[in-house]
Amino acid sequence: MKETKEADKKALRQGYTTGACATAATKAALTALITGEVQTESTIYLPIKKFATFEIEQCTLESGAVTVSIRKDAGDDPDVTHQAIIKSTVHWNDADDFVLDGGEGVGRVTKPGLPVPVGEAAINPVPRKMITETVYEVLREFGIERGAKVVISVPDGEEMAKKTLNGRLGILGGISILGTRGIVVPFSSSAYKASIVQAINVARASNVEHVAITTGGRSEKFAMKELPHLPQEAFIEMGDFVGFTLKQCKRLGIKKVSMVGMMGKFSKVAQGVMMVHSKSAPVDFNFLADVAKESGADETLLDQIREANTASQVGEILLENGYPSFFETLCDFCCRSALMEIKGGVDLATSIYTMKGEQLGKAERNV
Questions:
Q1: Nearest Cα to 253, choosing from 170, 351, 347?
Q2: What pLDDT, in 10s, does the model give residues 29-55?
Q3: Distance between CA 246 and CA 227 in Å, rounded?
Q4: Which domains are delineated in the chain?
Q5: Interatomic CA distance for residues 325 and 292, integer angstroms
Q6: What is the mean pLDDT of residues 49-69?
Q7: Rounded-to-integer distance, Cα 318 and Cα 333, Å
Q8: pLDDT tens digit string along 96-130?
């Protein structure tokens, strides 16, 4: 089984980051600006110490400027920027220095706590370094001592950004130009984890010490209704990465964490599972029956719970039969499991909701 999984993983096609595409487009645009020749491809050296060649979608020479477009190929990764057009416009800068900025569809940072200062285009440090070094490398190659200005743009970037966490992070007007390796590893969780850390950093930079972590957009809405006093920066979608998010909250100085979610994933958290993807671990119906027994459920109900198909069905059974204490006990188990995972140091609260937004139970444990 392990060999099959490894083979499937190797069969997935890798792609390239927006940062790599922006760098390749910049190199081609600057080369065309210098030579006056339309470029058809661009080869750059990636941070993973490999060369990569990009096909140019369009190379437009205008008076004193060149714009090059590259279509991003994310490989087999389900990325919102897959097939996006990444553009770089390069022209000479009379100030004799190098300037990098973002244009249409590239977000601008409006909140502290991100790796890019407030007011600047959301071009992350590694892509900035890649683009800068590539510009100076091309200038040296042609023996030119002039300043240059590079503007990266993504025509549909503002629309794409609606499917990302950029708005929550205070990155407005478009997507971010990202990538630390130059390549996109298919189905990698690293990008999502990085966005969680960024969200916590933004919260801390806004002096937030109490955050609400949720498994998705629906539970986030429930959290916002339950905790209206918290600022927007305090609400963080953790997805399936419960343990990772809790540890990062503690590491970055969060004092209180409210976990808000629904029966399915939080039934796993209650039993100590901190990666709650549907494939990571099954719901333990015997565990839920034990919790129900603590709440006074009779053997007939316990048998129904053990025979249930989903955790939500268990919740419906206990709700219909009048056992609200079950949900409070389950929430308390979640708090205990979370505190055990991070070895204490943070106040924990857990709220469990139905799909329709009815709160089933809540529990808190203070350090």
A1: 347
A2: 999 999 999 999 999 999 999 999 999
A3: 19
A4: 12-184 (3.30.2110.10), 190-365 (no CATH)
A5: 9
A6: 96
A7: 17
A8: 799 999 999 999 999 888 889 999 999 999 999 99
The one-letter amino acid at 270: A
Tokens found for residue 100: 């990098």
Q: How many residues are present in the chain?
A: 367
Residue in 49, 20, 48 with CA at minimum distance from that of residue 123: 20
